[in-house]
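Take a specimen:
=====
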Amino acid sequence: QVRLVESGGGLVQAGDSLRLSCAASGSTFSSSAMGWFRQAPGKEREFMAVINWSSIRSYYVDSVKGRFTISRDNAQNTVYLQMNSLKPQDTAVYYCAASLHSGIPTIAGEYNYWGQGTQVTVSS
């Protein structure tokens, strides 16, 4: 079992930065791929970024490439999402998730555990 708790969301202006954190409890964190998803009002949950257990591999959706960076600290059982150059369209609830699948999964159904989400609001 893995419990995930996100933090770091808030209200910022366009062009600002935020760093989201996701603290994990449970023995499988260090062997799990970790992903970030977001869900805007009225829209489906969408994949943002994923990092494999060793941090060797990562992958981003095109809309955030070059602006968002995913990283993890297995000693601290924490995964991060550094978000730069934020845009109003980045406004959403952001969720971290843990996957027991190998590789770098990008589909929500491949994730086994989810956090409760943290709200990010970007004003123009």
In short: The two ends are 40 Å apart (CA to CA). The chain is about 0% helix and 50% strand.
